[in-house]
Amino acid sequence: MAILSALWSWLPHALLFTLCVFFVAFLGYCLYIKHLHLKYDHIPGPPRKSFLFGHSPIFLEIMKNDGVIHDKIHEWAEMYGPVIRMNLLHYVLIGVYSPEATKEVLMSSKYPKDKFLYKRLFNLFDQRFLGNGLVTARNHEQWYKQRRIMDPAFSSLYLRGLMGTFNERAEKLMDKLSEEAENNTVANMLHLVNCVTMDVIAHVAFGVDLDLLRKSSPFPKAVETCLKGMIYYVRDATFQYKPQNWKYVNEVREACRLLRSTGAQWINERKTDIQNGEDVPKDILTQIIKSAQQEEVMTKEDEEFMLDNFVTFFIAGQETTANQLAFCIMELGRHPDILEKAKKEVDEVIGMKREISYDDLGNLTYLSQVLKESLRLYPTIVGTSRSLEKDIVIEGIHIPAGATLMFSTYVACRMEKFFKDPMKFDPDRFHPDAPKPYYCYYPFSLGPRSCLGKKFAQMEAKVVMAKLLQRFDFNLVPGQSFDVRDTGTLRPKGGVLCTVRHRN
């Protein structure tokens, strides 16, 4: 009884002490926020919604309404100029839409990828996601070592050898569309091209046949869940602590685990083939294993590192190309004159051939323009960011070290300053004789950290589009949405619903 009495008398003091510590810590945090405001508030930008949370409430409201945050940033860039300040708690983000600054920063290796975004992509809700893979590695030496090992899987010679696979998988899509045409059913083009691009990356990168146009698979849903979860994890620091979100958080974790466990299985199967002396392709999976074998002793972290790159390539290798194809089909359906011009070129270059050659791709000039214009308006990867470790001056504005520089090709490509009538879909912007956009169009990023799979993605997209235009007429179903959905990558919100019929 005496012990209980003593404990009871001690509790108020412990509680008071805890509250005092919390108050002092909170006061210190508020003073730090105020210090950041004084340090960066000379940079133009919209008014903060909150002293503590900065512009976060604005972004969360847009997400709640299924909007696109980048449209709001575009609005601010037009209003405040090429350098704008945004505050998220104790993070200061500087949007940069100056071609000269974009060139200086992205073309250099001395500006590391930023901590704010890329460290949060290591895990998703405490489940390892992209880790230290090729996209997220911040240390330049670590990244360069990976990139050098991966390069052979994306050499021109190796990519030429993939034309057979691109043709074969695109033919499976044509067979599926033939069924849709004969049955007079509506085709969800986003879903279909997602299946094709995931089939392609699984086959050419990992040696696995999924045949998603004929078989069900948990992978497409898992990728979508991870990407959507990534958006909440990066933009809403409180998301995982709200009880109403716990079910969804667990779904994201399960999706991450599925991708990584699948990767572990495929890697172990390939390792066994290598150990047994079997011939294996010089594909991405072999290169991932080769990168880990540089270490004398394989540790648990080395195993996780292999899975980091597996997940990176599995997602990046299909998601971006699928969304580009879907947006391209959507815009061609909205512009019959451009569609007819693209068909005419395909008829002249491809004719009735079933097998499209590597040389044919180089002759599809107008189709290249169409695909580039699709990426201008709808870059599936919106942009990139860098940490600012030394003071810099951009457009006459002094930016102190410590901030994060945000570069958005989505925003830059929708600015009147860089493109006349920017919301108009006009492939002639990319005519060979037209002036080249100066460091404002970078859907695959720029410089040493630009996308390794750029050529792979464009070859695949061109083969699929050429076969589609060669074989089918398609019309967009009336009444559907042509809005954009932000799911980590940008997707057509309505799915691009089409009726298709065979061309005469």
UniProtKB/TrEMBL annotation:
Cofactor(s) listed in the protein's UniProt record: heme
Alphabetic keyword roster: Cell projection, Cholesterol metabolism, Endoplasmic reticulum, Heme, Iron, Lipid metabolism, Membrane, Metal-binding, Microsome, Monooxygenase, Oxidoreductase, Steroid metabolism, Sterol metabolism, Synapse, Transmembrane, Transmembrane helix
Entry-linked InterPro entries: CYP46A1 (IPR039983), Cyt_P450 (IPR001128), Cyt_P450_CS (IPR017972), Cyt_P450_E_grp-I (IPR002401), Cyt_P450_sf (IPR036396)
Metal-binding found in the keyword field: yes
Catalysed reactions, as listed in the record: 7-dehydrocholesterol + reduced [NADPH--hemoprotein reductase] + O2 = cholesta-5,7-dien-3beta,24S-diol + oxidized [NADPH--hemoprotein reductase] + H2O + H(+); 7alpha-hydroxycholesterol + reduced [NADPH--hemoprotein reductase] + O2 = (24S)-7alpha-dihydroxycholesterol + oxidized [NADPH--hemoprotein reductase] + H2O + H(+); (24S)-hydroxycholesterol + reduced [NADPH--hemoprotein reductase] + O2 = (24S,25R)-24,26-dihydroxycholesterol + oxidized [NADPH--hemoprotein reductase] + H2O + H(+); progesterone + reduced [NADPH--hemoprotein reductase] + O2 = 17alpha-hydroxyprogesterone + oxidized [NADPH--hemoprotein reductase] + H2O + H(+)
E.C. designation(s): 1.14.14.25
GO MF, one example: iron ion binding
Family in the record: Belongs to the cytochrome P450 family.
Function of the protein: P450 monooxygenase that plays a major role in cholesterol homeostasis in the brain. By promoting constant cholesterol elimination in neurons, may activate the mevalonate pathway and coordinate the synthesis of new cholesterol and nonsterol isoprenoids involved in synaptic activity and learning.
Record protein name field: Cholesterol 24-hydroxylase
Provenance organism: Mugilogobius chulae (yellowstripe goby)
